[in-house]
Amino acid sequence: MSKLEQILASNARSPALKRKSGSGRARLLLLILTSLLIAFVFLTQPPVRNAVEPMLSHIPGL
């Protein structure tokens, strides 16, 4: 194998080795942010707020 072929072969593999499918921390953060967004949108709807307020009134400090 010539020197050029060795360089091309090593360069073709290195991006695949460096690339990750996604870290666990990033996936967890994305899941948490998505859940918070859905909860915010859901709980800001007037019918939902009216249904949830009686349950929340039993919790002191809210």
Share of residues in strands = under 5%
Radius of gyration in whole Å, from Cα?
A: 26 Å
Q: Helical percent range?
A: over 70%
Q: How many distinct beta strands?
A: 0
- Which blocks of ≥5 consecutive residues have pLDDT under 50? none
Report the average pLDDT across residues.
83
What is the tally of helical segments?
A: 3
* Gap between N and C termini: 72 Å
Structural class: mainly alpha
Order of helices and strands: HHH
Number of domains: 1
Shape: rod-shaped
Sheet with most strands: none
Give a quick set of tags describing it.
single chain, 62 residues, 76% helix
How is this structure best described in words?
The structure is a single chain. The chain has 62 residues and is mostly helical. The chain has one domain. The chain contains 3 helices and no strands. The N and C termini lie far apart (72 Å). The mean pLDDT is 83.
Short description:
This protein has 62 residues and is an all-alpha fold. It contains three helices and no strands.
Helix-strand layout with pairing:
Elements: H1 3-18, H2 24-43, H3 46-56
